[in-house]
Amino acid sequence: MVNDLNALVRRQRRRWSGRTVRAYTRDLTRRLNKMLGFLLSQVSATTWDDFRLAHAEAFIDHELARGLRPHSVNADLTILRRLFGFLESEGRIGRSPFGHLPQVDPGQRVPRFLTDREVTRIEQDLRAQVAQAVSPEAQRSARFDLVWFYLLYHGGLRLSEVAYLELGDLDLVGQRLIVRSGKGLKDRCIPLSAQSREALQAYLEVRGPTPTARLLVLRHHAATTYGLRERIIKCAERTGIAVCAHRLRHTIATQLINAEMPVTSLQGFLGHEDLDETMIYARVADQTLVRDYTQGMQRIEQEQKLADLQVALLPVPSDRQHVVELLHQLAQPELTAEQRMAAVVEMQTLLPGEWPTLPDSPLAVAAHTVG
C-alpha cells in the first residue's frame, strides 16, 4: 500500500507548479494519512479491495461530528476518490468503490468581500504611507505596498501569483500583465488599470538593481508569500479592517459582476478552470440583486397603489347593494319629494365625492324633483 501511495504522490506532483509543490505534497500526505488511518480502524484490510462505500460514509459522519466544515470533508473525499481512481487505472483494484461517493452539501456559502468604504479606506491608508515617507527606504517600502494592493485588488491575483511575478511579465506600454503558471499550471493575460500602472511605474523608479528577475523586491530580496502576508496584516492593523489577499480578490470579482461583466470574461480574468467557481460571484452580487429587487418592488408598489385606488372608488359590497336598492326606489314615480331627498342624501353618504349625473338618470330626476 505504501508504494501505491508514493506513486500517487509522484503523479500529482507533476501537475503542480514549483512554488506550490512542497505545500501541496504536505497537504496531500496529511489527508491521506488521516483518511487511511480512520478506514483501517474500521476494517482489517490487507488489500485495497477490502474497502467499501460504507467505510467512507462512516468517515464522513466522524469528521462532521468532530465539527469539520463540509468544505474540508469534501477536500478529503476528493483525494480519496483520486486515490482509488488511480488504483483502478493502474490495475491495482477491479473497480473503485468510491466512484459515485457524493459530496457533502456545503450549502450556499459565498465568499466574503470588502465594502466600497472599506476598500477605499485601505487604498487611502496606503497612499498616505507613500505621501508621508521621507527616506528613500521608506519611500520604496510604501510604493511596494501600493503595488501589491493593486495587483491583488484591481488585478484579482492570488497571493502566490503576486509573489512570483517577474519583470518580463509586465508590459506597461501594452497595459497588460502575464500571470504565469497560475493554479493548474495555466498562464493568463490580464489588463492593468490606470491606478495599477501608475503604482507600478512609481515603484519601478525606486526598485533599484537586484540579482533577481522577480518584479516585487524589498530590501534586495524577492518578495515571498509569507512576507506579503505580514505586510497585509500590518495594513489591517492600521485600518482596523479584516483584509486578506483573497478577500481583495473576492472584492474585485464581486464589483465586476455588479458592473455586469460577463461571467465567462470574469472566469478568464480570475484564472478559474471551472465556470462553477466563477458562478459563485453571481450569487453574491449584492448591487445587482438590490437593483433588480428595487425595480421589481417599485412595479409591485405601483400596481398595488392603482389597485388600492380602484377599490377606494368603489363602495364595499354591502353598500353597493344598498345603492342599487336606492336607485330602484328613485325610479318609482310615486315617491314623494321628501322620500326622494332622503334617498339622495343617503346615496351621497354612501358615495362620497362629486359624481357626474346624466340628465335622464334617477339622480338627476331626483334632484330636479327636489329642486
Strand order of the largest sheet: 1-2-3
Report the sheet-strand fraction: under 5%
**Any idea of the CATH topology of the largest domain?**
hpI Integrase, Chain A
- In percent, how helical is the residue content? 55-70%
CATH class of the largest domain: Mainly Alpha
- Runs with pLDDT <50, length 5+? none
Number of domains: 3
Number of helices: 16
Q: Give the termini distance in whole angstroms.
A: 112 Å
CATH architecture of the largest domain: Orthogonal Bundle
Task: Give a quick precis of the structure.
This protein has 371 residues and is mainly alpha-helical. The chain has three domains: 2-89; 116-288, Orthogonal Bundle (hpI Integrase, Chain A); 317-370. 62% of the residues lie in helices and 4% in strands.
Structure notes:
- The chain is mainly alpha-helical and 371 residues long.
- The chain folds into 3 domains: 88 residues; 173 residues, hpI Integrase, Chain A (Orthogonal Bundle), CATH 1.10.443.10; 54 residues.
- Helices cover 62% and strands 4% of the residues.
- It contains 16 helices and 5 strands.
- It has a 3-stranded antiparallel β-sheet, with no helix packed on it.
- β2 and β3 form a beta hairpin.
- α11 packs across α12, α14 packs antiparallel against α15 and α15 packs across α16.
- The protein is flat, with a radius of gyration of 36 Å.
